[in-house]
Amino acid sequence: MDTKTGAVASKRNGATPLARPGRIRWAPGTTLAMLVVVVLLPVVLPSATLATEILIFAMAALACNLLLGYTGLLSFGQAIFFGAGAYCSALGMLHWQLGLFSALLLALGVGAVLALLVGLLCIRRKGIYFVMLTLALTQMAYFLAYTLSDWTGGDNGLLGVPRPPIALGDTTLVSLASPLAFYGLVAVLFAVIYIMARRITSSPFGSTLLAIRENEARAAALGYDIRLFKIMVFVLSGAITALAGALYAMLLNFAPLSNIELLMSEQILIMTIIGGTGSLFGSLLGAGSIVLLGDILSAIWPRWMLLLGVALIAVVIFMRGGLWGGLTSLLQRARRASSHDKEA
Amino acid sequence: MTNAHAPLLETRRLELAYGAFKAVDGVDLCIRPGTIHTVIGPNGAGKTSLFHCLTGERRPTHGSILLDGRDITRQPAHGRVGLGMARSFQITSLFQELSVHENLRLAAQGVDGWKALNFWQRLDTRKRHIDTADEVLERLNLTERAGIPAGELSHGQQRILEVGMAICARPKLLLLDEPTSGMGIDDIPTMTRLIGELGRDHSILLIEHNMSIVMSISDTITVMNRGRVLVEGTPDSVRNDQRVREAYLGEAA
Ligand SMILES: Nc1ncnc2c1ncn2[C@@H]1O[C@H](COP(=O)(O)OP(=O)(O)OP(=O)(O)O)[C@@H](O)[C@H]1O
Ligand SMILES: [Mg+2]
To answer: Which pLDDT value is given to residue A87?
Structure first.
């Protein structure tokens, strides 16, 4: 099982209850699976660029999952962080000649600060009002980016974004010019973030997020400062999303205005939901399937987004736990069937 | 230091108004340590409103609340837990999809306040909270059901867990709002016994409608009516008080 708090609704996945609930064991299962996927992606897929795109969006979906799946916060604000990460790192590299890691750190910082501000504002309201606030802020961010075309390139996007090498001082250690080298960088960053996120979700902080998702009033009555927790998870999510945005700009050598559009928030949300909320590995599945679907279908049919809608409806209606939920219940059924065979 | 005579919790001219209507109207309450103090009163007397003020769910419009002599009137609800107050809910409020054990563990962890903002430790290294949860499970007779989601417990067991979560914080003062509400007759003795037991090592403020429970376990009873304190005293003196009978009869009429 993905969440090892022992806490999770065993009902949902049809699992048998854990014998010693609340005891968290370090199950390396999905982390291992994630590493295998990360290694195999560029081998299996026709291009390393496609594989890179998958991991970048998996990073964004994972960050979105921390909000939606673990805390129960439906945020349409993710594009703000994604777009800001892309613009700020790109501008930093273009105007201040920032190196690779400084640019990525800048994105992390900008994402965290923006998420702090967005969080402080939106968390004052709950439910649908919270959602509307994140939506409104994304619209504002979009128009701001559109208006500041001297900086962002407006409709044309910000062109000529470099992809600096991994360097120590002035000596280049690894050039990232080749798609596969850049994939390597993104893969390492993704794996690190995944493992950190896994650790965080099974910490006291993470268990509290689940409590907030389940029942905010009770969590507050137990002594948890709900707003503090929500803001912290927002900052975390914003920073990771901005990092993904920065990597995306480096991948494309270009920061399009669409990065900061509401549609980007929707895409990230759709990936998170299709993959499975509350499962980090699900985010990888969700991002992978949507990016691949888009890549294949957009070549044959320009209106492929329509099919995305159909896929979303199908998952929401027939697979409540998303792809990850479907996969786990399939595995369980197989396991049960095989143990049944042995008994017989 | 709490000596036996200093009140554990005190309210001074407490008032909660909804618009022009005063649901709590100048209540002076004094809960002595080590006692079970019950608030009763006819429907609409203001018991729940008083309870909301004490838990921090609502800010009183006037007056003050003191815990161990310290003014906590403006403390938010979550801040009161660390000071030694814990509550249960009149309408069961659990983490339905989390296991029974995890419900209790979270309750034990909550007292740590901001220290629960620990991003890095694994949960099993925080043995204290797990031990507390185990202990309380034992006490509630729910050890067998530790692993199932709280939402799958029977209604009576959910009520028991509801109260159990409040004691995980090891509070000085337990605030219980109608712990038997909605419970079947079969389950009520279990709850009565549990509250009686808890009364041995906690001070309890209880709001309760069931008179047989109230009379059997309370040390002090405060009768409220129309937002004010009508009578206060021992179960015997309250039982025989003419004004109390009138208040309840007035409700029936
Ligand atoms: N949110 C509110 N807004 C306006 N009036 C309210 C509100 N909550 C309660 N009241 C009123 O305040 C009065 C006291 O209500 P309260 O719920 O405190 O009574 P109670 O003693 O708990 O009653 P019961 O025994 O029915 O639970 C009632 O007249 C009620 O209608
Ligand atoms: Mg009431």
So the answer is: 96
Q: Which of A6, A202, A215 sits opposite B93 (nearest CB)?
A: A215
Q: Residue B198 and residue B150: Cα distance in Å, rounded?
A: 22
The CATH number of the domain covering residues in A45-295: 1.10.3470
User: Is residue A244's pLDDT more than 70?
Assistant: yes
What residues pack around ion ligand 2 (CB closer than 5 A)? Answer: B 48
Q: Is B78 contained in some domain?
A: yes
Domains in chain A: boundaries: 45-295
Q: Which of A263, A318, A268, A264 is closest to A290 using CA atoms? A: A268
Chain-centre distance for alpha carbon A312: 17
Residue B146: closest CA among chain A residues belongs to which residue? A21
Alpha-carbon span B231 to B222, nearest angstrom: 6
Ligand 1 proximity of B41 Cβ (cutoff 6 Å) = yes
Using the predicted structure, report yes or no on whether residue B211 has a pLDDT greater than 80.
yes
- Pick the residue of B94, B112, B122, B177 with the most A CBs within 10 A to test the interface with A by mutation: B122
- Closest to A244 measured CA to CA, from A92, A75, A65, A52: A52
The answer to whether the CB of B225 is under 6 A from ligand 1 is no
Distance from CA of A111 to the nearest CA of B (A): 19
Distances B248 to B107, B209, B211, B226, B238 between C-alpha atoms, Å: 37, 12, 12, 12, 12
A205:B89 CB<8 A? no
Token pair for residue A43?
Answer: 């081998």
Give the pLDDT band (50/70/90) at residue A337.
Answer: confident
Given an 8 Å threshold on Cβ–Cβ distance, is A221 in contact with B87?
Answer: yes
Where in the sequence is the domain holding B124, given as residue range(s)?
9-252
The whole-number pLDDT of residue A319 equals 83
pLDDT value, residue B3: 53
Read off the pLDDT of each residue in A8-19 and give the average, rounded to a whole number.
34
Tally of structural domains, chain B: 1
State in Å: Cα A119 to ligand 1 middle. 34
Considering every ligand atom shown, identify the ligand nearest to the alpha carbon of residue B52 and give its number: 1
Which of B78, B102, B119 shows the shortest C-beta gap to A22?
B102
Q: Say what the pTM is.
A: 0.88
Distance from CA of A22 to the nearest CA of B (A): 5
Q: Give residue A287's pLDDT.
A: 96
> For the residues B147-159, what does the mean pLDDT come to?
94
The secondary structure of residue B30, as a DSSP letter, is E
- Mean per-residue pLDDT of chain B: 90
A22/B105 CB distance under 8 A: yes
User: Residue B177 forms beta bridges with which residues?
Assistant: B207
Residue A28 at interface with chain B, using a CB cutoff of 8 Å: no
CATH of the domain at B13: 3.40.50.300
Q: Tell whether ligand 1 has an atom less than 6 A from the beta carbon of residue B54.
A: no
Residue B4 lies in a domain: no
ipTM score = 0.89
* Lowest pLDDT segment from A301-305, B40-44, B70-74, B91-95: A301-305
Minimum distance, in Å, between the CA of residue B239 and any CA atom of chain A: 34
The DSSP-derived string for B155-193 is: HHHHHHHHHHHHHTT--SEEEEE-TTTT--TTTHHHHHH
Residue B22 CA to ligand 1 centre (angstroms): 10
Task: Establish if B23 belongs to a structural domain.
Answer: yes
